[in-house]
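Hi team, as promised in this morning's meeting, here are the two structures we talked about. I've kept the exact order from the run log so nobody has to guess. The first one is mostly here for context; it's the second one we should focus on when we meet again. Sequence first, then the predicted structure tokens.
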Amino acid sequence: MCAPCCSMHQSLPRSLLYKSGPLRRSVVQNRRSRECRCDRVHTAASQQRSDHCLSRRALQAELVAAFAFAIPLRACSAEVESKSPAANADNELDLTVTEKVFLDIGLCPEGLRSDRTLGDASAICTDATPLGRVTIGLYGKLVPQTVANFSSAIKAGIYTGTLWSKVLPGEYMQAGHQGSKRTGAVDIHLPESVLSRNQEVLSSKSFRMSHSRPGTVSLSIGTNDDDPGIRQRPGYRNTEFVITTGPGPASALDGENIVFGRVLQGYDTMTAIQSVPTFRPFNERVSSFNKLASFLKDERADRVRAKWGKPLKAIVIMGAGMA
């Protein structure tokens, strides 16, 4: 019963509340009609509030649906717009293949020989199982100095007997790490007559080419993991390079490395290399902690992350030469 009806009922004289007669019946009927009108008013008000809530919920649902469809479309359009300039820029570059080189890849059952002795010149196995050959075309007109150094390193046998130091499936694989020759790295004592000082690393034009396709070959600048003490040597020459594995673009390397070639043959060999187990974080929690430590400028995080992707078996460059 609504408040006005309740107050009217309470204000009735006791003689009308407890005595019978026509006057009582009239008053009771009048009171009931007022109750019905009050109930109708309350019902209408409740319905109005309910309709209002429904209209607000419907509006919220429409807004959510609109944003759910609009945001991905905008993101996709922005992604296409961001990629199209890079693709157009790549098409405008001179990607003529001026030279071809090959790398013969083999796999050792373990990282280092367990039967090696103190006087052994190398700790890498000599009976590696062949995985195949990778043929690379070099862009001699795009970055001539970088291509000339890589060709000279191939002809001098600098990469023969060295290991792939990092394999990140779906991203890239890396070779040419400098260090001790016994452990499968490129010898740090490179003759100055073989590699000249590469001035293209100082030019922004050398970094225009993107890593948009699988099989892109680039000189490791941003991804270089040579020891800082080695890089600070007066006669240091960068020999580290990466090959993107796909299937998608490796956009994180754009502007970081100098693209100087692409894989022409040997994608099946690259697939075999990616199937080799590598050292990686146990779970996402470890990766998250590492990102946090890196954000806090903890140098240990960078040292640990540098070991991620290291093959647990020795992937050897058994031979290299001009194709």
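And here is the second protein, the one for discussion:
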Amino acid sequence: MQQCYNRGCGQLFDPTTNSDDSCRHHPGAPFFHDAYKGWSCCSKKSVDFTEFLNIKGCTLAKHSNVKPPEPEKPAKDNEAADKEVEIEVRAPIKESLPRPAIETPLTALQPTVAPGLKETIDSLKISNVAAPIEAATDDGGIAIGTSCKNNGCTYSYTNTGSDYSECTHHPGVPIFHEGMKFWSCCQKRTSDFAQFMAQKGCVYGQHKWIKDDADKKVVQCRYDWHQTATNVVVAIYAKKYHYAQSVIEVNPIRLHVLLVFPEQENATFNLDLELRGIINVEKSSAQMYGTKVEITMPKLEPGSWPKLNFPREVLPAAKKSPTQAKPTTTDESDEEFFDLDDIQSVQSHGLRLSEMSLQSPNGLD
């Protein structure tokens, strides 16, 4: 007995009784396509492999003990194998630049002043008479209905024992960034202004009915920032600040801004930040508009900054670059507004915004 190798048969046969109609088989080759299994010689096909094996042959012939030839495999492309494989070698990743010291001397930027701001400030008639304190009465007491001066507290003076109850307030400053509103002293963030104003304070203390002298010398301005692939832009929103007395200084990792408000007894807004990344001081620029100050600082190395600055309670005293020029003024008439004594008194009584925003251990920036 011999084994028949015709496809679809596989029976044992006796060569002496092998006739022309002894073997039912498939002369074609099997195919598998789109989950279907079948034979190329007939139209029968199935998705089940067992049913495919049980499909009866479509042709009658003699049994054969010779294995059918296997289908030829596609020849390999020798030319493609002989070609040299080019390996692309990428440039090594550059190491981060060494971070300069925070005490690096500051360089004053010469801002571009908008004509509208210059005209507004030059036409101001500043009075030396201080505005009366609304919270005080003629006899030196506190007027009934005076609101508490602490941020986030809505209590008003009633001249009763409840005036000495605990005051729940926010010691930090309000921050508005990328549509979110929050206090620098706590983590509660919201996009709704009414919810922001209704947020309960995060610390307890005593009510404050009269602003301190230091508070009168400080202006709280809102500031924001954004970045591109090459620049970091800081915008400080302020009106009627003196373009000649205000100062904008930078070093590779620090930004210091001092805005002077002549209509508010030379009160100041002081922003002193240690930047997250390193900037190009030589290409930094500033623009002063009627409603804001915009500082553009090119990045010295590529990459995205996760935040604008590092929170630090106290920054070293600002140093001046020995080679820097004096702050620019557009004409000689501006010199009458520059009084060195006024600047010194502002710096001695002023309070840095960074110190106000870092009174809480949360360390928001």
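Starting points for discussion:
The radius of gyration is 42 Å.
The first strand starts at residue 2 and ends at 3.
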